[in-house]
Amino acid sequence: MDIDKPEQEILEELKEAFAAQYGDTQGARCFFAPGRVNLIGEHTDYNGGHVFPCALTIGTYAMARRRGDREIRFHSLNGSEERYITCSLDDLEPEGKSGWTMYPLGVVWTFQGQGMILPEGFEMEICGNIPAGSGLSSSASLEVLTGFVLKSLYGFDVDGVTLAKIGQYSENNYNGMQCGIMDQFASAMGLKDHAIFLNTADLSYTYAPVLLEGKKLVVTNTNKKHRLTDSAYNDRRSSCEQALKELQAAAPIENLCDLTPEQFTVLESNIRDEDRRRKAKHAIYENYRTLQAVEALQNGDLATFGQLMNESHISLRDDYEVSCEELDVLAEEAWKIPGVIGARMTGGGFGGCTVAIVDDDAVETYRKQVGEVYLKRIGYEASFYVVSIGGGPRELK
């Protein structure tokens, strides 16, 4: 679905599809939850560090209503895989299930596991305008959306932080993806024109204004599809956990990101494997970069913020090794263009997108120059999106 399509058009399509699938729209309600982009602070969220994401105005939409039986029914306007799935509230265990409905079903499963029992099933029509496989957290958006739908339809007393925790728990334990909480938190707690400065060690957070006067936030999609559950993402987390155990033998820390870069320099020899040492180094230095970046933004120093974005990409490429040729071409070509304040890969890696801060009068040059080099070197086109920072989940009237 076109990310520039007006919301009212999306809602009309959603209503037509719901009526076609379920007979009518009587009693059905419409909802939205955003995707996210992370400005800086990558692979720190499961290491007790800081992240700095923001919700986007693109995301996932749903029309839903309760049923009078035990069935749950999902239908999606997106994707090429099976779009219609039905199951029972009495058969929610993950065994034998696959596909996109693992995300909403995992949320239902978690709600019930936490004592929020659905007395009857529901039916839901879903569509989204987050580009598939882009790394802008369509899965977290769908999880938060489902949680918000359940809260609204059944009257559960659940706040945004709890919705984020439920989304993360379901993805970890239902989908087998050992993600941190950043994606779900950004979707559940987004605030227009603000990024979220989140300490993932204790979930304390503040909102920081991101008012890019004379500049744009440009997301560039490699169009290389990725699925993190099939990638080395879980291996990276395992490496960090092992490195933490080795460091804890020498220092009283709970998380890798409890250490400053200076402290890590003293202690790093306790990590016996060189590869694990580099993974730990990335997490600790990235956490420090995030602290510096937020301070720079608050001081109006976008040049420093941009330089720290660039350094983040280099560390993700060289130390954490979650970049790829496609992402590197996008970032490295962006750095050559006057008017690009900073550019880095964003998200889990192995594909997906870069995010860049670009002067208004350099946006077209950025699109043209980066796009031409990317096509020549990679063999297919990248996609460019000028995005805006939006709010969290909401019901649409």
Descriptive overview:
This protein has 397 residues and is of the alpha+beta class. The protein has two domains: 7-208 and 390-396, Ribosomal Protein S5, domain 2 (2-Layer Sandwich), CATH 3.30.230.10; 215-387, 2-Layer Sandwich (Alpha-Beta Plaits), CATH 3.30.70. It contains eleven helices and 13 strands. The chain has helices at 7-22, 102-113, 138-154, 160-173, 182-189, 233-248, 261-267, 274-298, 302-318, 325-335, 363-378, and strands at 29-38, 50-51, 53-66, 71-76, 84-88, 122-128, 194-199, 204-209, 215-221, 340-346, 353-359, 383-387, 394-396. The chain has a six-stranded mixed beta sheet, with helices on both faces. Strands 10-11-9-12 form a four-stranded antiparallel beta sheet. It has a three-stranded antiparallel beta sheet with strand order 2-7-8, with helices on both faces. The longest helix has 25 residues, at 274-298. The radius of gyration is 21 Å and the shape is globular. 49% of the residues are buried. The model has no long low-confidence stretch (mean pLDDT 94).
In short:
The protein has helices at 7-22, 102-113, 138-154, 160-173, 182-189, 233-248, 261-267, 274-298, 302-318, 325-335, 363-378; strands spanning 29-38, 50-51, 53-66, 71-76, 84-88, 122-128, 194-199, 204-209, 215-221, 340-346, 353-359, 383-387, 394-396.
How many helical stretches?
A: 11
Terminal Cα separation, in Å?
21 Å
Count of distinct structural domains: 2
Q: What is the alpha-carbon Rg in Å? A: 21 Å
> Class by helix and strand content?
alpha+beta
Low-confidence stretches: none
Query: Tell me about the biggest sheet?
Result: 6 strands, mixed
**Strand line-up across the major sheet:** 5-4-6-3-1-13
